[in-house]
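tool_call: predict_structure(chain=1)
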Amino acid sequence: MTAAADDNPPPAAATTTATDPTFRNYTPARAAAYARARGSYPAALYDVILARHAQTGGQQGTILDVGCGPGNMLRELAPAFERAIGCDAGEEMVEAHWFDMPAFWKQAAQLVKPGGSVAIFAKCSFFCHPSTPNIATVQRVFDTFERVSLAPHSLPGNRLCRDFYRDLALPWQSDNPSPEFPEALFERHTWNVDGALDGPDGDDFFGGSVMLTPAKIAELLASTGPVQRWREAHPREAGTEMDAVAVMLRELEGVVGVGGEVRMGMGYALLFFKRR
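tool_result:
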């Protein structure tokens, strides 16, 4: 997800190529399911973004959400600005890890006024709360599913997101860098890496944690690109007891019990840039 504040009118020829074949082909029904499953981002993350934007001289005129999907984030941040704009390529659901980043930065330089901000942020991996019984075994079920079972169906963008945008191309790291977003003004924020409790009191995740039932876990996983690509590659198994998600949930229930809930949080990454 990317948001740019204090934008200029977009140039007529502005386009940004995205590389995920799954979300490019989303139907309205699948987009609605995505919106239900994913929800929005925690208020704590929005607070950091808005605070850093204001503290670095940003104005509250316009916010532009590039690759807005169903608009979950934009609805949350819009009240802080006079005008809110969301753009997406039709039914496409695009996030920063699918962008052609050098092209993105060239267009961002045209869109964002000097003093404006670009915030690129994402939800990363799931983590069990340390209070979870048998936490090592439970976390291993999730990690094996993500990093082994789904590995053949994970694209580079999935791995970028999973690794907290550590290797996302930055504006000064290309053969034709974008000097409008200098490295000296760049900030990288990560929370809950490897399951660390980065909440304000040190007893919960940054952004909080939730109790997830197997049904909710299945709904969340079904909205991810790797799961959807696995199901497209295994149409006979999809939706049956041999579905990748169903197999993982049986392994999970073998540890936490049938119908047992798991307390979980998300990792978050925020890359914050200023327009010179």
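agent: The chain has one domain: 2-274. Proceeding to next step.
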